[in-house]
Amino acid sequence: MVEMKSLARLGEYLDQIPTDKGKYQRLIGKLIYLSHTQPDIAYVTSVVSQFMHCSSEDHMNAVTQILRYLKGTLGKGIMFSKNGHLEITGYTDADWAGNIFDRKSTSGYFTFVGGNLVTWKSKKHKVVALSSAETEFQGIAKGLCELL
Question: Could you tell me which CDD domains the record lists for this protein (predicted)?
Answer without folding.
Answer: RNase_HI_RT_Ty1
